[in-house]
Amino acid sequence: MRRVLDVWESILVTLMTGMLAVFTIVVAYQVFSRYVEFVPRFFWTEEISRFSFIWMLFLGAAVAVRRKTHFVIDILPRALHERHGRHIDVFVFLVVLVVAISMVVGGYYFVQMGMKRISTAAGIHLAWIYLAIPVSGISMVVFAFERLLASYRGQQPRDVP
What we know:
The protein is an all-alpha fold. The chain has one domain (about 1-155). About 75% of the residues lie in helices and about 0% in strands. The chain has helices at about 1-35, 45-65, 80-115, 125-130, 130-155. Helix 1 (about 1-35) runs antiparallel to helix 2 (about 45-65) and helix 3 (about 80-115) runs antiparallel to helix 5 (about 130-155). The longest helix is centred in the middle third of the chain and has 37 residues, at about 80-115. The model has no long low-confidence stretch (mean pLDDT about 85).
């Protein structure tokens, strides 16, 4: 199962890399077209940059759950965390699991709504953009479940690269 999740994580990272490339190229073109008179300005570039950023954000959040690098607020003293770290990790990943499940359910409704809407400038069905939410949510559910089981067993499934 770990190999399958490693492959899924690498797919997500590859998609994020592709979205970063799209984002960088489109934003660079936007800036370039503002200062060079003969370069045409396209309205769809703003939407495409925003859409690629949304996908990067949601896919990155899922990968961060797997790598245990998602943002954490330390409110408990370190001594308590050292003694009860496993229980705290289980609690944290249960919370992540609940949030991820809500993303899957809410994202499904967003995708359904997006089937009826088309972006103004790019002409893309918004369902393709909203699909980032349930894809990220499903990935988070799987990754959080993997982390939850590992924390419950007192294991570390994977080190942060």
